[in-house]
Amino acid sequence: MLDDNQNLTQAGVNARRSVPAATKAQGKTFTAYKPYTPQFSAAATVTVRRLAWALGCSMPAAVSRLVELLPSLYAAETVCSHCQDKEKCSLCSFKTAAPTPPKDLIYL
Question: From residue 5, how far is each of 2, 11, 108 by CA, in Å?
Answer without folding.
Answer: 8, 10, 36
